[in-house]
Amino acid sequence: MTLDSSASIAALSYGLAAVAFAFLALASRGRDGPPGVPGLAVPAAASFLWASILSLHALLRIGQEFAALVELGRNLVWVWFLWRNLSALRAKNETADTLAFLGRGLGGLAVLAVASHLFSLAFPATKLGYWVGAVYPALFAIAGMVLVEQFYRNSSAQERWGIKHLCLALGSIFVFDFYLFSEAMLFTAISQDGWIARGAVNALLVPLLWISLRRRVVTTDVQLAISHRMAFHSAALMGSGLYLMLMAAAGYYIRFAGGEWGAVLQTVFLFGAMLVLLLAVFSSVMRAKLRVLLAKHFFRYRYDYREEWLRFTSMLTEGEPGAQVYDRSLQAMARLVDSPAAALWLKQDAGPGLGVYRRVAHWNFAELEGQLEEGHPFPAFLESRQWVLDLKDCREQPDLLEETRFPNWLLACDKAWLVIPLLWHDNLSGFVILAKSISPPGMDWEINDLLKTAARQAAAHLAQAQAAEALTVARQFESFNRAAAFVVHDIKNLVAQLSLLLANAEKHKHKPAFQEDMLATIESSVARMNRMLHKLTDEPEENDKSTVDLCTILEEVMHSKRAYSLQPTLHIAVNGMRIKAEHDKLVRVIGHLVQNAIEATPYTGKVGVTLDSDDDWAVLTVTDTGAGMDASFIKERLFRPFASTKGTGMGIGAYECKEYVQALNGSIQVASTPGRGTLFTVRLPLITESKP
Questions:
Q1: Cβ(294)–Cβ(232) under 8 Å?
Q2: Is residue 551 part of a domain?
Q3: With contact defined as beta carbons under 8 Å apart, do 363 and 338 qualify?
Q4: CATH code of the domain covering residue 439
Q5: How confident is the model over 88-116, as a mean pLDDT?
Q6: What is the distance of C-alpha 252 from the center of its chain?
Q7: Which residues have C-beta within 8 Å of that of residue 276, sequence separation ≥ 6?
Q8: pLDDT > 70 in the chain, percent
Q9: Which of 251, 457, 522, 566 is most buried, by the most CB atoms less than 10 A from its CB?
C-alpha cells in the first residue's frame, strides 16, 4: 500500500466516523435518553470534530502535536461524560466518598496530560511526542475501561436494559485504543493498519450508541452500589495497566540505551516484567493485601456481607450430606480472615456427667493438638464471655483472661492466632482455632462481629450434622431392637408351645404317637430359634419372596397346634392357591392369628380356619367363639405395637400380622362382638397364569 493510498483510506475511514458521529449528535439534540445518560450530544459532537480533524490530518498532513491535542480533547470529553453519570449515581448514595480517590486520580491525569500537550505545542524541541502520542492515550483508555465497568456494574437490572449498548460501544472504543497505543509504546510507532481501521471501527459502534439513546427506562431510585469484588477487579486492572505501561517505558529506555544489545535486553526485561506480574496476580498474599487496602480506604465496611454470607453458606452446605462437614466448616471460617489453617474442638461425652473437648478435625493444622475437660476454666470463660480471643493480646496482656488458666498446649503454639467459641443455645459446643492470617487485617469490631455471627451459623450446622449422625445410630439400634422384639415374641410362643408339650408329657409319655409328635415339635422349635438367631447376628437381607402354596402353609400351621386341647378345624374350598411370600414369615403370621383365637376361646368353644378365593384374591378367615373385642379396642389398640391385654403378652403379634399382610399388597379386616367371638379376614393377591 503506497503512502497516498493509505492516506486516502485513512481519510475515508475517519470521514465515515465523522458522518456517523454527526448523525448521533443531531439525533441526541433535545433527547435525554435513559436516566443517567444525559448529554450524549456533547461527546458525540466532540467525536465528530475529532474524526473530521483526523480525516483532514490524513490528507493535509497537519502537525502531529495538534492531532494529539485533538485526541486528548475527545478522550477528556468521553471520560467527563462517564464521570458525570457516576457522579449522578453517587449523589443519591450514602457512601458519597467511595469514588473520591478515583476522581482525584482522573483529575490529576487530565491536568498533567493537558499541560504536557500544551508544552509540546509551545516547545516542539522538548521531544514529548512519545508521551503525548502513546502514553497518555493509553492511560485514558485504561481510565475509560474502568469507568465503563463501574457504570455498568452499579446500574440496576432495569437500567442496564437501556445502557448495555452504550457500555458495549464505549468499552470497545477504549479496548481498541488501549491495544493500539500499548502496541505503540512497545514498538515506538503506531501501527499504520490499526490507525487506519480505527475510524471505521468507531463508525461501526455508533449504531450501538444510537440504540442506547432511543431506549428509555423510567426509574425513581438510582443508587450507586460499588461492590468489593468490582472495586478489587477494577483496582487490579488499573494497577496492571499502569505496571505494563511503566515496564514498556522502561523497556523502551533499555532498548535506546543498550546499544547493539538493546533489543535483546528489552526482550528479556519485558519477559521478566510479565513473569513478575503473573506471580503477583496469582499470589494469595498480594490479593489479600489489596483487599485490605481497598477495604480500609474505599469502603465504610470491610466486607461485602451479602457476598461473604452467600459464599460462607455455600461452603457449609456443598457436597454430599454429612461428608467432610468439619473440614468445610473450618475452611469457611478461615476464609473470612484469609487464615491458612484451622482446627476444630467439639464437646464429647466421656461418661455420666462428664464431657471432654477433643480435636475432631483440622485443616493444615496438624501440629496443634490437645484436649480440655469440661470443668477446665478456659471453656467456662469462653462460654460466659463469648469473646473472639486474639492470642497475641492474651499473651501480651494476661489480665484479659482474669483468673482463667490458659491451656499450655495452646500457648506453646506460636502459629495460633484466634480462638472462636461455637455457641449453641448459649452453651459452648466447641471452639475453632485459626492460624495467623497471610495478611493480618487487624482485629476490630467488624471482624469480631462477623466471626461471632459466622461461628453461630457454623455451630448450628455442626449441631445439625451431629444430630443427624446420632439419629442414624439410633435408627440402627431401633432396627435391631425391633427385630429383637419380634424374636422375643416368637420365643414366647415357642415357650408356650413347649410348656404345653411338657405338661402333657407326664400323661402321654408312654404313647408312641405322642413321642413322635414331641420330637417333631422340639425339632421344629430348635430350627425356628436358630433361624431367628441367624437374622439377629447376620447382616439384614432382602425379603426372600418365593412362590408358596397356601394349602401347605395352613397344614403346617394346623400341625403345630395339635398339642392344644382345642383343635382348630380347617376347610379348604379351593386347592392350589399360590402367592408370593416368605414361607417362614407367613407361617408365623397365620399361626399367630390361629394361636390368638385358641387362647381367646374356652375349651368348649370352636376355632375354624377357612381358605377360599375371590377372583384374583385368596381369602383366609379365622373365626372363634371366644370373648370377642369391642369396636374401640379394635380401632385404637389391636394393631398398635406393645399394647396387649394378656398378662404375658408383648403386643406386637397383631401389629406384625398387619404390617406383613400389607407388605404383600394384601389387607386384613376384623369383625368382633363382645361375648360372641371374632372373625379375622385376610385377603392376599394370587399368582395368576399369564394369558397367551
A1: yes
A2: yes
A3: no
A4: 3.30.450.40
A5: 62
A6: 50
A7: none
A8: 66
A9: 251
Stronger pLDDT, 52 or 319, i.e. the higher one:
52
Reading the block at residue 566, the C-alpha cell is 382345642
C-alpha 16/C-alpha 105 separation (Å) is 34
List all residues 6 or more positions away from 537 whose beta carbon is below 8 Å from its beta carbon: none
Domain count, the chain: 3
Adjacent-strand bridge partners of 431 = 345, 421
648: nearest Cα among 532, 533, 493: 493
Q: Range of 681's domain? A: 543-685
DSSP state of 436: P
**Residue 63, beta-bridge partner list:** none
Shared domain for 547 and 455, answered yes or no, is no
Pick from 210, 226, 242: which residue ends a domain? 226
334 and 424 both lie in a single domain: yes
pLDDT at 362 exceeding the cut of 80: yes
Amino acid identity of residue 282, one-letter, is: F
Question: DSSP characters for 180-220?
Answer: HHHHHHHHTS--HHHHHHHHHHHHHHHHHHHHHHH-----S
d(CA 275, CA 212): 41
How is residue 459 written as a grid cell?
A: 455451630
Domain boundary among 420, 446, 471: 471
Distance CA 140, CA 117 (A): 14
User: Is residue 360 within 8 Å of residue 324, measured between CB atoms?
Assistant: no
Enter the C-alpha cell of residue 248: 514498556
Q: Residue 33: helix, strand or coil by DSSP?
A: coil
My answer on whether 65 and 190 are in the same domain is yes
How far is 408 from 370, CA to CA, in rounded Å?
9
For residue 61, pLDDT beyond 80:
no
Distance in angstroms (rounded) separating the CA atoms of residues 267 and 254:
10
Same domain as 213, residue 71:
yes
- Alpha carbon distance 633, 585 (integer Å): 26
Q: Tell me whether residue 527 is in a domain.
A: no
Is there a domain that residue 143 lies in? yes
d(CA 63, CA 170): 27
Assess whether 552 and 677 both reside in one domain.
yes
Other Cβ atoms closer than 10 A to 158: 13
Which cell is 1 given? 500500500
User: Do 565 and 446 reside in the same domain of the chain?
Assistant: no
- φ/ψ of 32, rounded to 5, equals -85, -25
Closest CA to 58 of 21, 15, 20, 121: 15
3 state DSSP class of 366: coil
Asked whether residue 482 is assigned to any structural domain, the reply reads no
Name beta bridge partners: 610.
Answer: 571, 621
pLDDT in tens, 625-678: 998 888 888 877 888 766 565 545 555 678 788 888 988 888 999 999 998 899
Residue 415: half-sphere exposure toward Cβ, Cα within 13 Å:
16
Distances (CA, A) of 243 to 249, 278, 280: 10, 12, 11
User: Do 96 and 198 fall into the same domain?
Assistant: yes
What gap in Å lies between CA 71 and CA 121, rounded to an integer?
A: 14
Tell me which of 405 and 600 has the higher pLDDT: 600
Q: What is the CATH number of the domain that holds 550?
A: 3.30.565.10
CA count, 13 A, side-chain hemisphere, 312: 22
